Amino acid sequence: MLNKVEEVGGQTNLITVVNQKGGVGKTTTVLNLATCLSAAGKKVLIIDLDSQGNASTGLGILPEDRKMSSYDLIIAEEKLSNVLKETKVPNLFIVPANSDLASVDMDLVNTEQKAVRLRRCLIKELSETRKFDYVFMDCPPALNLLTVNSLVSAKMVIIPLQTEFFALEGLSQLMVTIKEIRNTFNKELRILGVLLTMFDKRNNLSIQIEEDVRSTLSDLVFNTMIPRNVKLSEAPSYSLPGVIYDRKCLGSIAYQKLAAEFLKRERNTLSSTG
Ligand SMILES: Nc1ncnc2c1ncn2[C@@H]1O[C@H](COP(=O)(O)OP(=O)(O)OP(=O)(O)O)[C@@H](O)[C@H]1O
Ligand SMILES: [Mg+2]
């Protein structure tokens, strides 16, 4: 537990993108939203917290440039400035991931304050330098210690939900975890929004699931939905975010709309929490 509530990051907004279900669009959302905000002149950092390293791959970070990773930030308490890398997207930086991260749960299990490691690492440097407007954390598909560390560090959460039959499955467990973290380590944590991804407007099931999710979660759901779009899934193999690979495709247009809605919601969320 933190001895006192220390603010993470000063003016920097830290957003974690979480869903313990795999393949729901967490990484795609991090890459494209972060890129849209960078293009709008914001300085943005992605912290890749998934040992799969998909966010790092999606930005073309080579294996030899991943020797220092988010593992070193959390376990070796390496300085942020020593582990981050520039990307080919102007204003966008990344702390890459490598397979070392797979052992973080084991490495931390007997350590004191295992849930606040990342928060402690981020507090100092972000507050002092105010270097970034936004930090996005790309979580693994698990409610493990890395995901908990990201929730303890973040100011806001985005939850992508794939528009498919089991969309809401697991959400209540995630909500309980968020509530527990709010009651213990991070009372400032807010859910910025639930994002429907891979929406297919020709599919009646997609439409019905959208209705269900909106009637269950109402205002929590972003108005913007991300359509299923092949260009978004092709982009990582070109080491580019979709919004750069093909900025005019429907998926990219949706992420640009999401960025505008993100900025609006962020302002409202910040003003409603004082
Ligand atoms: N809107 C979309 N349309 C089509 N394909 C998509 C879309 N969003 C994501 N994908 C593809 O679906 C797969 C899963 O997406 P992504 O990697 O973003 O999910 P994830 O939640 O990060 O997965 P994991 O839990 O494994 O980290 C990827 O191959 C990605 O390219
Ligand atoms: Mg991912």
What does this structure look like?
The chain has 274 residues and is an alpha/beta fold. The chain has one domain (13-272): Rossmann fold (3-Layer(aba) Sandwich). 42% of the residues lie in helices and 13% in strands. The chain has twelve helices and seven strands. Strands 3-4-2-5-1-6-7 form a seven-stranded mixed sheet, with helices on both faces. Helix 1 packs across helix 12 (250-272) and helix 6 runs parallel beside helix 7. It is globular, with a radius of gyration of 17 Å. The structure holds adenosine-5'-triphosphate (ATP) and magnesium ion (MG).
Provide mean pLDDT, rounded: 92
Instruction: Tell me how many strands there are.
Output: 7
CATH superfamily: P-loop containing nucleotide triphosphate hydrolases
Q: Which strand order spans the largest sheet, edge to edge or round the barrel?
A: 3-4-2-5-1-6-7
N-to-C CA distance? 24 Å
Shape: globular
CATH architecture: 3-Layer(aba) Sandwich
Q: Which distinct ligands sit in these coordinates?
A: adenosine-5'-triphosphate, magnesium ion
Order of helices and strands: EHEHHHEEHHEHEHEHHHH
CATH fold node name: Rossmann fold
**CATH class division:** Alpha Beta
Which percent range fits the helix content? 40-55%
Q: Spans with pLDDT under 50 lasting ≥5 residues?
A: 1-5
Work out the strand percent: 5-15%
